[in-house]
Design goal:
CATH topology of one domain: FAD/NAD(P)-binding domain
Strand content: 25-35%
Distance between the termini: 59 Å
Shape: globular
Number of strands: 18
Largest sheet: 8 strands, mixed
Helix content: 25-40%
CATH superfamily of one domain: FAD/NAD(P)-binding domain
Radius of gyration: 21 Å
CATH class of one domain: Alpha Beta
Structural class: alpha/beta
CATH architecture of one domain: 3-Layer(bba) Sandwich
Number of helices: 10
Length: about 375
């Protein structure tokens, strides 16, 4: 057993966990932080890898060396129609590089890191600390941050995981030395409850497709077949199974308590995934930043009750906007063919990219007046 008492123990070294660890040390350099992950880094992570430049607002170091490719051309496809925008810069990353870069930055501040260590349970030890139990190891911490991702089991086991919407996703990494066109594609013509994507990388393409899992429709998502059809559009005729990955994504659903005693939820397990686009890296990093600010206050004041305020911090800075995206996602998935003509315009795609790039928000772009219009159009149209 490790007899040290840590100020903060963070479980999960993805973007939310490393953002949280780094920012706590930036705000409270003397804080004793332990970061734990079940994987050895660098590690592959299934992900399209699209990142908003807004993430730079939550980290005070340059990200240039962790960016794989910068894209300025976005193409939205719907009803056979292509609308292109070139007014916004988006970043593409390889998660094995990007995540490891953030981890190394956190470690450089003095954050202690233990890899290949799976946490099995968390137990309230006493009024001052909580026990984190791993195989053959135990750690005590004043604050425990769960950044375990959507596949994590701890929050669910403890009964504190939000009720998120599940998106089934399948992705194929196509590696190529050919000079590809460098455009990012969002395509609504290949799935009735989601979209297909093509994210350009310096050495190939990240191609994928996602669809909502809805009760009786589980098992009918048929993503492999749909993805096979989609990738052929870009000259990929055969899958290398080693580069084909399926995974669930936890989309934001509604406001939920994110603090339980000394335990805080951040990242995907907290619902930090856009229900309209499935973007997760930016809100994950932002949630880590918000949690770090609140935890730093807890450490300074030695007052654990201040931790509860993080739930409201999250709601005001992340949840409210994702809630507006959830409304749009509901109507789009239910009445996709009726609504798509409304949003496949140059103005609409530029508005969408304003949000993704961090220049605007869903609350600014999707007014209640627009929601009412969607409702009326949906009611007039057959379901």
């Amino acid at each position: 057993m490790n007899n040290s008492l840590y100020d903060v123990i963070i479980v999960g070294a993805g973007p939310s966990g490393t953002s949280c660890a780094y920012n706590i040390k930036r705000l409270k350099p003397d804080a004793k932080i332990l970061l734990i992950d079940k994987a050895t880094f660098p590690r592959y992570k299934p992900c399209g890898g699209g990142v908003s430049p807004e993430v730079a607002n939550y980290l005070d170091f340059p990200l240039e060396s962790a960016i794989n490719y910068k894209c300025n051309n976005v193409v939205m496809v719907a009803n056979g129609k292509e609308i292109e925008s070139n007014q916004h810069e988006l970043w593409m990353v390889r998660r094995e590089v990007f995540d490891n870069y953030l981890l190394e930055k956190a470690k450089s501040t003095g954050v202690e890191f233990i890899a290949n260590c799976e946490v099995k349970d968390i137990i309230n030890q006493n009024d001052d600390s909580t026990l984190v139990i791993a195989e053959n190891q135990q750690f005590s911490g004043k604050v425990i941050v769960l950044a375990e991702g959507g596949r994590g089991k701890l929050a669910k086991r403890l009964g504190i995981a939000p009720e998120n919407t599940i998106l089934a996703a399948m992705e194929y990494e196509h590696y190529s030395n050919e000079d590809l066109n460098g455009k990012l594609y969002i395509d609504f013509d290949y799935n009735d409850s989601g979209y297909a994507w093509n994210f350009p990388k310096a050495e190939g393409l990240s191609l994928g497709i996602g669809g909502l899992i809805k009760g009786k429709e589980k098992g009918k998502v048929t993503l492999p077949k749909k993805l096979s059809t989609y990738v052929a559009k870009f000259g990929v005729e055969q899958f290398d199974k080693a580069n084909l990955h399926g995974h669930p994504i936890e989309l934001y659903k509604k406001k939920h308590k994110l603090v339980s005693g000394r335990i805080v939820l951040i990242g995907e397990i907290a619902g930090c995934v856009d229900p309209l686009t499935a973007e997760g890296i930016r809100p994950a990093i932002k949630s880590g930043y918000l949690a770090a600010k609140r935890i730093s206050e807890v450490i300074s004041a030695n007052n654990i009750s201040l931790l509860k305020k993080y739930t409201q911090d999250f709601h005001l800075n992340i949840g409210k906007d994702l809630g507006r995206a959830k409304i749009m996602s509901f109507f789009l998935n239910r009445y996709m063919h009726q609504i798509l003509p409304m949003i496949t315009t140059e103005k609409a795609i530029n508005g969408f990219m304003d949000v993704f790039s961090g220049k605007s928000s869903y609350i600014e772009k999707i007014s209640f007046r627009r929601i009412v219009k969607l409702c009326l159009r949906s009611l007039r149209s057959p379901s």
